[in-house]
Amino acid sequence: MAIFWILLNILDTFIQIGCIRINSERIKKKEKNFLFFGEFNCVSSEKISNAFSWLATRSPKRNHRCNVPEIVANIRMNGVLSQSDTLQSLASRSDDGIPFFVKKCIEYIEKEGGLSIEGLYRVPGNQAQVIEFERLFINDSSVDLHSMEMPVHAVATALKNFLSGLPDPIIPYDAHEALVNCISENSPEGISLIKDVINSLPDANRKTLSYLAAHLARVAKCSNTNSMDVRNLAKVWWPTLFRPNFDSFESMAIFITRLEMATQLLILYANIAAQ
User: Fold this and answer.
1) Could you tell me if 48 and 158 lie in one domain?
2) Are both 144 and 233 inside the same structural domain?
3) 78 domain-assigned
4) Are residues 186 and 262 both part of a single domain?
């Protein structure tokens, strides 16, 4: 039983970083032995089941391959999202082109004094409360969170889970390089480049990103009380916004810093994104 809980703790750790993908086919063999997920996505229960299988079959005491039961295969890993949901389809159901769940979470966080709560978006919410919030939303999207006094950290975690669970990142892959290139431009020209990149995004991505960036900018303004300045916010948000596909650990080491800096720019210039 102790081993089972250890495995769950390991799994939970990888769920937290599940939006980062590494192409195992291009990683050296010795690196594969370290990374037991070739490609892990928090919305894929199949990958999670494979992870459990890997751990069991790599036990130093094994003398045969283990048959691991599919104990997690039916867990709903994508929260309020259905398999057919995309950012575009969800945005199309909203009058302003921003998914209703995103607005509901952010509005609740700000109205409930979340901007002043220490560690907002850095401190994870209680998993049971996150699941309960998602369940309530699935049953009734108009559920009144204020009357339920839902913890802000739980709602903040649910928001990040939602964006991580979308089929594609909120910042499309073909825009990553252009945004990263903006980090070397500390000038009006650089600001203009950021605006151009944001304006080139599909409507659903642009509007949702702008709405989120404006919210994060408001969070950063309260960093004296919440300890979440632009830099700290960028550290916890860049994996969710970009969900990069790294070819190797070397490229990951290089681009993590750049993607983090690009996220800082998006928050700093949120007023541009909102134009």
Assistant:
1) no
2) yes
3) no
4) yes
Mean pLDDT value of segment 12-18: 45
Report the pLDDT value the prediction gives residue 142, as an integer from 0 to 100: 87
Domain count, the chain: 2
DSSP annotation of 173 reads G
In the chain, the N- to C-terminal Cα span, in Å, equals 55
- By C-alpha distance, which of 20, 28, 13 is closest to 248? 28
The structure tokens 């892990």 sit at 40
Tokens of 158: 């649910």
Q: What is the pTM assigned to this prediction?
A: 0.72
Q: Is 228:120 a contact under the CB 8 Å cutoff?
A: yes
Same domain, 245 and 113: yes
Question: Quick one: which H or E segment has residue 171?
Answer: none
Q: Phi, psi (5° rounding) for residue 179?
A: -70, -40
Q: For residue 79, what pLDDT band results from cuts at 50, 70 and 90?
A: confident
Better-predicted residue by pLDDT, 15 or 145: 145
CA dihedral of residues 41, 42, 44, 45 (deg, nearest 10)? 130
- What is the domain extent for residue 124? 87-273
Phi, psi of 62 (to 5 degrees): -75, 150
Residues in the chain: 275
